[in-house]
Design brief:
The protein is mainly beta. It contains 2 helices and 9 strands. A 5-stranded antiparallel β-sheet has the order 5-8-7-6-9. It has a two-stranded antiparallel sheet with strand order 1-2. Strands 3-4 form a two-stranded antiparallel sheet.
Amino acid sequence: SSLDSSEPVVQVVRDVPAGAQITPDMLRTVAADVDATVNLIGADELPTLIGQYAKVRLVSGSLVVPAAIQSGPLLSPGNAVVAIEVKAAELPVGLRERVPVRLVVPASTSDESPTATSIDGRVVGLPFASDSGLGTQSVSIEVAAADAATVAAADAVRVVLMVPSEDPANRTEEVTE
């Protein structure tokens, strides 16, 4: 098909981290020549985006798709976000924002029972190189608030990528009349 007419759509003006609440200065409308099958947010919907949340990192200059925005905050009630440092070579391939992970915290040598602790979580911040100089990367993980201290106090944490499940932010509640 040919692209011969532009449509007004929503564009990101500056980088928006995952979880940030959308403000008017983050977005603008632009005319774009795109195929009708591309699922973009039309300019007429821009006002409805203000106050919503970025589900993933929105890169400056990109066009906004509905799957990148959610109505609720990134962090669920009763949860906390913990930053962990992991050796870059120990991060699983495919790690991205909002994927479920299992954190494995080795037992402390002072523990009477040498059993590792497993804590389920979800990635909310992509890995980035740490300034520690140890070849580690920092990853932000959402865990239950009760588990946050265990993860934060751990000397070493292994990250296991789990099978993706339904993202609670994508759930649509049934409307009953």
